Amino acid sequence: MIRLPDPKSHVLARRDAIAAGLRALLPESGLISDPLLLKPYETDGLSAYRQMPLAVALPETTEQVADVLRYCHRNGVRVVPRGAGTSLSGGALPMEDAVVVGLMRMNRILDIDYADRVATVQAGVTNIGITNAVAGNGFFYAPDPSSQLACMIGGNVNMNSGGAHCLKYGVTANNLLGLKIVTIDGEILDIGGAHLDAAGYDWLGLLTGSEGMLAIVTEVQVRILRSPEGARAMLAAFSSNEIAGQCVDAIIGSGIIPVALEFMDRPAIHACEAFAHAGYPLDAEAMLIIEVEGSVVEQDDLLGRLKEICQRFDPISLKVSQSAEESAAIWKGRKGAFGAIGRISPDYLCMDGTIPTSQLPYVLRRIGEMSDAYGLKVANIFHAGDGNLHPLIMFDANDPASFHKAETFGADILKLCVEVGGCLTGEHGVGVEKRDLMPVQFAEHELAQQRGIKSAFDPEWLLNPSKVFPLVEGVEERVAA
Ligand SMILES: Cc1cc2nc3c(=O)[nH]c(=O)nc-3n(C[C@H](O)[C@H](O)[C@H](O)COP(=O)(O)OP(=O)(O)OC[C@H]3O[C@@H](n4cnc5c(N)ncnc54)[C@H](O)[C@@H]3O)c2cc1C
Q1: Which domains, ranges and CATH numbers included, belong to the chain?
Q2: What end-to-end distance do the CA atoms of the chain give, in Å?
Q3: How far, in Å, from the CA of 140 to the mean position of ligand 1?
Q4: What is the pTM of this model?
Q5: What atom of ligand 1 comes closest to residue 338's alpha carbon?
Q6: pLDDT tens profile 203-247
Q7: How far is ligand 1, taken at its centre, from the CA of residue 101, in Å?
Q8: For the segment 132-178, what is each residue's pLDDT rounded down to a tens digit?
Q9: How would you classify the pairing of strands 225-226 and 231-238?
Q10: In this structure, are residues 95 and 80 in contact, taking their beta carbons and an 8 Å threshold?
Q11: Contact 156 CB / ligand 1 (< 6 Å)
């Protein structure tokens, strides 16, 4: 629901004064306050929630970000940092009394050091933009969220994003070396650097995944890696989710680390096949895409061993790609999965939780039972190798009862993840979507410690408030520890 700004004249006067104050600090067209032009910023990838911001600032340099934050700090204005707005948990959702600081104009590659394998880029460079910048020299940036064409490295840092290939290479945190940040009072700080580890406290670890609540990231230094000689995928289809889950557990337990290990259940297989015509087995209940990389000899050896493991679970079919083209065909359906589900149900909630891989068979069975109990279809497509679940719950947005049911179903799945030893989020963050579930994972004293860290960086809670922590007694204010 869109909540328009309070029509009271003093509110409008304050809004105009803030817009004028910020406009003076930014390049021409760097401040948007016209309600029509603000519309594209009213939501993010979690489109079920909407809210128009007070204004949008589009700085082009770190110094301009510092000027904007200093102004907002001095005038008690709340700030919501935003990259591409692809967050699926409402992390970049605006507030009606907050200024959105959009980093999209900070999109320059600043330096590439091939000798030390480090790329320094502005926060608004897209994830794929880093790989595109270095691919010609045989390098790549490893974390690869499915949204990589659009999402930005600053957003990736703040959500600690992962992707299909993170099983082998790790998530953003494992590929991050340094940050330039601006604190809410406008101070510019350099954290980490172009070397492994840094002296003193692990500030980089603290800021990674901080969901825009501690500082605004303006520059990022990441590790770039030599591209592998080649990669090949195989596809293994099974007669039940549980059996496919057991196979995942056996693969991980064998010590082989495929570069990717993706899971799709029957609804996902059918939706993706209809969308991409990738040759997926329509008679299967569940399917794994397993990819290995290295020299041809290494690929053959690993694929042979993986085939042997899969055979222990009576697969319906096994297809080992013989070329890069065949691998691309196997990936085609998976990469278009969210769009494919959108064709059969325009409205769906994409959940994101993690579990120990040994719990996959049990958790998949329980999700199936819950789907029956709620009467809502669910498609499971996820990074199985690291136990990162993404059940897509389909609902009808025109029916408020259906949306409410989908939300409750989603919450039950996340509670189940915590119950079996996992956690509330693998890579999409907490945002507004999961803030009320935080007490399921954390005791009150643990939440108080986390609030204390927020307060140390941002004592007035101006930076992306109302995210991550449960709202206090329905009041949109936080308890500053
Ligand atoms: C189709 C689709 C597929 C997806 N697949 C994946 C996937 O495979 N893996 C995955 O991890 N995620 C995935 N996502 C989620 C999303 O793309 C990631 O969370 C991504 O990192 C968000 O980047 P963004 O630039 O869009 O950030 P935004 O959505 O704009 O912001 C995300 C959060 O970071 C904060 N933020 C953004 N930039 C900055 C900055 N410079 N400084 C401080 N705070 C900042 C925001 O306030 C917000 O809290 C997917 C999303 C979609 C829509």
Answers
A1: 9-102 (3.30.43.10), 109-226 (3.30.465.10), 231-419 (3.40.462.10), 442-481 (no CATH)
A2: 32
A3: 20
A4: 0.91
A5: 1
A6: 999 999 999 999 999 999 999 999 999 999 999 999 998 899 899
A7: 14
A8: 999 999 999 999 998 999 999 999 999 999 988 888 999 999 999 99
A9: unpaired
A10: yes
A11: yes
